[in-house]
Each structure stands twice: as structure tokens, then as C-alpha cells.
Amino acid sequence: MKEINLAEFETEVLAGGKVVVDFYSTECPPCDALAPKFEGLANLYGNDIKFVKMFRQQNKPLAEKLGVKSSPTLVFFDNGVQLEKSMSGGIKRSDIIHQLDSMISSERVLEIKSHIKPTVSEFDVLILGAGPGGLTAGLYLCQSKVNTCLIDIALPGGQVSTTHEVSNYPGFINPQPGYMLSHNMSEQTKQCGTIYKVAVDVTKIDLENREVVIDEFETVKAKKIIIATGTSPNLMGIPGEREMKGKGISYCATCDAKYYGDKEVVVIGGGNSAVEEADFISKFASKITIIHQFDAFTANKQAQEKLFANSKVNTLFSHEPRSFERNGNKIVTEVEDLKTKSRIKLTSDGVFIFIGMKPNIELFKDKLELDKWGYIKTNEDMQTSLRDIYAVGDVISKKYRQITTAVADGTIAAIAIAKELG
Predict the structure, then answer these.
(1) Do residues 212 and 277 share a domain?
(2) pLDDT at position 390, please?
(3) Between the CA of residue 245 and those of 83, 233, 309, 399, what are the distances in Å?
(4) Strand order through the sheet with 2-3
(5) Same domain membership, residue 267 and residue 180
(6) What are phi and psi of 146, to 5 degrees?
(7) pLDDT of amino acid 307
(8) pLDDT, tens digit, for every residue of 352-400?
(9) Active site amino acids
(10) How far is it, in rounded angstroms, from Cα 63 to Cα 369?
(11) Does the pLDDT at position 239 exceed 90?
(12) Measured between alpha carbons, how far is 289 from 422 in angstroms, rounded to an integer?
């Protein structure tokens, strides 16, 4: 695997046979999460497919020419021809493998996979998710000399790592960059002794037997499990969204706002995330139109006042998007006025969607008692309905979801487990 620049693109990629290119950015948690997967697969497939990286910010014209609209993006080539399939955002290892397998013979696929040997590891506690709740639980457990493993499909930090600024975390007078706050939390837990298995694919979760399979070949067993899987952005579910996800439609301002310098964008939503991230995007974009379904924002008053004072921002209240279409390099958002039922079309360079979150429980949602919104029910010690299974953070049923409440949940679960194991 090597990093190349624009001058090397023709010889290394267009004349390079079978190639996969990783367009990455700085201060991009999904890029950081992809990096170890990309390197690991380069070691497996490197004799058959060339793996190269390109710094997107220094190769913007090429990236745009290839249809790269967000970071990270993987683009595949076969003898100079760009393949139709590309991948963006939170890219799964299994999806990359599927694409790589399609580029070589089935015989070589079998030979490559014969080198992957199944392994088993055992711990006292396994934490699923490395956001503030999971990191805090790991910190308290390792300080109690409890052998703990922390697993995450991305890098540690959770949503905090993609938050522009955190202004209400105790102990900091000035607002903290989200990625630095999550980095410091992660380093503290790691230095304490918690074992990290991050940027992995979680293939299977067996709560009854307290086993988790990662990357299809490693089984991790534990006496107790803490679920700290958090939430993911809601999708709108309207025409064009999935097709343009990562190709002009984004859910992460920290990752992608920098690519809309002097351009026009649409922001959808009206809560804290939408209002605060719109203000951040305005540092780059020339014009922002916010679309919100209600007559007023639901974000905190301070964030609203700051946004209303921003001359770059216009707002469409009582409107909802109905579809997205591509028009050259532009995105056309069809919007309906909920009062008059009339529709208009907004043309922009990109769209950011912030319409709430959903709990990440797909692999085990039928095993635990949930509330009516799909969040995990716990008792005061963070125990779920299943013995030896705990849950903390945004994934649980509770009134407020904040960094501080997630940290409190992790503390409680860790202390309860340490006492029980002690």
C-alpha cells in the first residue's frame, strides 16, 4: 500500500491493473476507522490488487472528476477503467471484501481466505461500543482490575468525535473540539489497560452465550457484556436519498463541510444538531437553506439566536423534502409546504441531513426488553432483561441523552459489575 499524488495517478492507477483508491481527509473519524481495515486487506489482497491512498483535500479536482463527494470514498479500477461500484462513509470490511472478491478469480479468493485462521479470546467484560458511556465503563473496570475488552465498528469516541464543539462538558471553561474530547477519553481508558478491538465488523452477537464474532474470524467471549452501541442518524426514506448518500448527501458536517467552500447547501432538521451544525457549515458555505417541518426550531435558545444572526442562513419552516435528484454536479431537493401543499425545487451543491437518531440494536433487538421507541430498558444498575447483560448511553430508555448522562451510565454499570465479579 502506498500514498500517491496527482502526478502519479496515471501510472499507479490508470496503468496499474486492478486498483482500489482510498480518498481520505483529515479530522475525519470515518477515514480513521477505515484506515486499519484498508491496510489489513492490502496485506491479504495486495498480490492481486494494488491499494493506494490519496489525500482528498490536495486532490480535489481529481476527486470531483471521479464523483467523490465525501470522505472516505473507495474507488475501484480495472485496467484503467473506473468500476461503477464505489463506497463512502462508514465502510464495512465485509463490503470491501465482497467488491475485491469480484475483481479476481474464485480460485484466488479461496486461496486468500485460506490464510485467515479463526481465533478465540476471553475476557471478564466485553463492551460493545466506544462512545462516552463505553469508554467510561472501560476506565472504571480496568481501574478495578477487571479484564475488559472494548469493541467498536469505528474508532473510539462515538458521535462526540464528529461534533464540532462541546460547550457543556464539565471541567472545561472553553468549548472543546469534539474529536479532542473523545480522543482524550479514549487515551485515558486505553492507558489504563482496556483492550481495544476497534474499526472492526461485528459479524454476530450472541447475548445468551456472551459471545461476539468480529471480522468473521475472531470470537470474543466474556462473563458479562455492556451494550453501548449508541444511535445512528435517521434516514428520510425519500427517493434519491440512498443513491446520493455519500455523493452529495451527508450526515456529518465535521467530515464534509470543508468541501463546500463558497457553495450553497441545504440543511434538513431543526433540533440541536441541525441548528448547531448549520452554523458550523456556514464557516465554509456561501449560503445555507434550512428546511424544518415545524413552525419553530426545537434547538436550545442560544443556538437559535446565533443562527438567526447569521446572514448566510435562510429558513423554510413548515416544509418537508419529498425527493432528491441529480442535475449535473447539483442536487435538486423538492420541498413541500405543509400548509399550502405547494411544492418548490431547491438547487444546491450538497445536502446535510440531521433529523434525529435511532438505537443501534439490529443484531440483538429480539433478545431484550425495549421501550415503545425501541430503546433498551435497564434497571438502576444498568442491567437489562437478560442476565449478565448491561446497557449504557444513548441506546437505553431514558429522558435525556447527553455526554454527561452516558458517562454516568457507564460509571454505574462498571461499579455494579466490578462488585459482582469481585
Answers:
(1) no
(2) 98
(3) 18, 12, 30, 31
(4) 2-3, 50-55, 18-24, 73-78, 81-88
(5) no
(6) -100, 125
(7) 94
(8) 999 988 999 999 989 999 999 999 999 999 999 999 999 999 999 999 8
(9) 252, 255-256
(10) 46
(11) yes
(12) 56
Radius of gyration of the chain (CA): 22
| Cα-Cα-Cα-Cα dihedral sign, residues 198, 196, 155, 228 | positive
> Helix, strand, or coil here: 267?
strand
307, 335, 353 - which closes a domain: 353
CATH number, domain containing residue 45: 3.40.30.10
- My answer on whether 341 and 363 are in the same domain is no
Q: How many residues does the chain have?
A: 422
* Lookup: cell for 340: 399550502
Same domain, 150 and 223: yes
Residue 295 DSSP code? S
Q: Which of the listed residues 70, 89, 113 is the one where a domain comes to its end? A: 113
Q: Any bridge partners for residue 290, and if so which?
A: 267, 315
Mention every residue, 6+ apart, whose C-beta is less than 8 A from residue 40. Answer: 93
Helical H runs in 117-177?
A: 132-143
Assess whether 409 and 367 both reside in one domain.
Answer: yes
Residue type, 175: P
pLDDT of 106 over the 90 cut: yes
Cell of 4: 500517491
Regarding whether 316 and 299 lie in a shared domain, the answer is yes
- Can you tell me the distance from the alpha carbon of 343 to that of 353, in angstroms, rounded to the nearest whole number? 19
> DSSP states of 339-359 as a string?
TT--EEEEEESEEEE---EEE
Angstrom distances, CA of residue 4 to CA of 21, 81, 85, 401: 10, 18, 21, 42
Query: Could you tell me the CATH number of the domain that includes residue 217?
Result: 3.50.50.60
Name the residue range of residue 287's domain.
Answer: 241-353
194 falls in which pLDDT band (50, 70, 90)? Answer: very high
Q: Cα dist. 337→84, 119, 258, 317 in Å? A: 36, 56, 30, 8
State the Cα–Cα distance between residues 257 and 259, nearest whole angstrom. 5
Q: Are residues 123 and 257 in the same domain?
A: no
> Does residue 106 share a domain with residue 74?
yes
pTM of this prediction exceeds 0.85: no
